[in-house]
Each structure stands twice: as C-alpha cells, then as structure tokens.
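Shipment paperwork, digital attachment
Item: protein structure file
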Amino acid sequence: MNLSIEDDRLAHLLMRGDGHAGYDAARRKLDRAALVLTADVAASRPWGQAALLTAAECGVRMFPGGVYLGSDFGETTVVGQFGRWPLRRHLELAGCRTTNAPEHAIALHVGAGRRRMQRGAQCWADGWAGLVGIEAPADPPRGGNEIGGVLAGAMGIGEVFRGAVLGDKLACRRTSRFSALSPGYEDGDDIDLAYLPAAFWLLGLGNLGQATLWTIGLLPYSDPGLVSMFLQDGDKSEFGNLAIQVLTKPDWIGRRKARSAALWAEEHGFGTTIIESRFVEGAKRSMAEPGLALVGVDNLAARRAAAGSNFELVLDAGLGATPSEIFDIRIHGFPGARSPIQAWPEPDVQPEIPLDPALQELVDAGRLDRCGAVTIAGRSLGVPSTAVAAAAIQVAQACRAVCAGGFFDLADVTLVNCRRATGRRHALARPGILPFLQVRSEY
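Attachment content:
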C-alpha cells in the first residue's frame, strides 16, 4: 500500500530529524531498511515468544524493507491469549517474510545464546527487565516473564532501528538494561507475575492504547473471559496510523478505533465495553466499572480529567513527540505525590515555526500544499516500539499495585540511555481495592 506524503509518518521522522533530508531520500532509506529475526531456545519460552511477537509487530512497521525469519520457529505458541499454533504462523500473520533476506539487513536475535553480534543486536529478559546488547552475558540470565519479554522485544527493535535507519553511532554497541517493575533501579524489587488485574479502563486507543492492549493480550490469564475491559476512544483509524500503531491493520482504516480494538480483544477472549466519546472533566465511573485506568492520550484536558476522577489508580503514559525525543517515556500515577495540574502545567504558547527545507522543497515543487506541510511540521512523531515499552511499564505497575499495594507514580525513561532512567515509589491509596485474578505462574 502506497502512502501519500501526508500519511508517511516514518518519512516525516527522517525528514524532521535532518532538515536537509528530502522526502524521496527518506523514502529510499526506509524502503531499504530490512531486518532478520532469529532466536535460540528462548523461542519456546513465554517471555521469548512475547519478545518475538512484539519484535515482529513493531518491526514490520518500522522496517518497510521487510522483516525476515532467520530461524525455523516451529515451537508451539504458549504465550498469552494467542492460538496454540506453531510460532512461525503468528510471525507470518504479523507480516514477517520467509524468503531470503537481503545482505544488508540488520539482525535482531532473541535470547542470550549468541557470543557476539557482528551486525545487529540481541535482546533477552531477566525477570521484569528487558536487555539489549551485542554480547551474551557472562552469567546465564535467570529467564524472564512475559512483561520482561515485551520490553526486551521493544528495546531490541528500537536499538536496531536507531542503528540501521537513524544512523545512531551508539546503537548496537553497548548493553542496556531496564526494569518495567522498578524503573530507574538497577536491582529493583521482584514479585511473581501471579496476580493480574481483573478489570481495565483503557482511555485512548492510538499508539499507546493499542500497545497497552497488546501487552495485556500476552499476559498468562487462564480465563481471559473473566477480565473486563472498557475501551474508550472517539477517533477513527487513518492511513498514517499503520506505521506507528501496533494493532492497526488496513481493514481498520476508516473504522472507530474503539470498535476495532474491542474486536481484537474479543478474539483473544476478553470481555469488552466500547465507549466512543471523550473523557471530560467531571466524568465519574460507577462503582461497578473498572477502578484501574491506563491512559494513553495526547489531549491535556482528557489526561487531567482522568487523573482527577474517582478511579482507584490512574497510570498515564506520555511519549516524546520530536525526533530527539521519540525514545523518551514518562509515566505518571495518581493518586500520587503530584496533582494533575502539577504534572501537566499549562503549556507555553509556541510561535509558528518556519517550514524546514525538506518540507519547503515539497511545497515549492507542488507536491504538497502549504496547509499539509504545516500539519506535518506540527504533528507529533513516534515509533511503535517506544509505545510498547511504555505499555510494559504501565502494565507492570498495575500488576505491582494488585500484588504489592504500591506503584511508581513517576518514571522518566529514555531508551537511548537507560542509565538515565528515574522512578519514584508510591503506596496505593487503598491497598487491596483493585480486583485481581490469581493465575498459574512458573516464575
């Protein structure tokens, strides 16, 4: 499917990241971007399959030149709410290719069994943490859970994208580690992934909301039919969403996101309620509705309204919106140490920014009108791998809340340098109030 210039979000990223890169040059670079996906014994483990499926869904969007399968992947799928078919079938359905990869393709290996990567990276999970690097650890990792796997897959795709597409000289050169359970702590707390939330209110079903739904679908619920999901979003899917929203498929275009997301959730066994209106100031939930809200919107009023409502716990995720910030994540939890107004003060009024040379060139050539160019210049940028990493943190904090009665009410993360991550612990206002399900867990 050929995207118009206005809808080509990945090309916008490359153009705005380097004002001298024209649209055609950006498109050629993207069309050449290819990835080979391989795995070792991790392909038989739930965390490894979570990493592979995540890498596949993010990879086919971020590597338009194709994601190629470099291993057999004949293992039976055992993770989450996915059909118990050979893993290869799920990867092919995601859009991975079984033909030979081009020689220039970069590699992502899931597992810690490769001695050293020559061109690419390997990723693996350690408990709730995701890791990415070019060398296997000296000591074998203990293995991870599904959320650690989701995080590892997202971090791995982000790393190879930075190296192969964005030309980041530091990508694929060092080992990075980050814990979704204890953001900013090298040796954080550890709890079993044995108690999972039984009810969610997902506010916003764009880049972040779809990533959150994807992550929930990989959790080890023994009976997803016992899980209640309220899915709220009033927008329709657009062509530009295909490259950045992890669940969006061509048949979603023109349909309400909440309805499409509900269909995906129901196909995976979950119960759903659809809400196609905005969450506005003064809105309250009834006591029969989910008290846990996972928020992923770019609307300031809706974020404040949700944080100030009567939910028992609100976990809000925000992503960086410029080329220099697309791997940045901030999580706010409420009730926490800060009020919604303190968390999101009124933004400064920004003057109109002149068009960068790449956009002006398109306008001058008559390939884009000025209105479209201004829209592109003001549009938030993003990649699905960062949204999925943010969702892993959100869902991990929800699990922490139901299991341990606490959560991180603030987490600042940049996946470019995980050592700069910071986090702050907070106690749940009323421990034990959130409904949960006990699930069978091997961890």
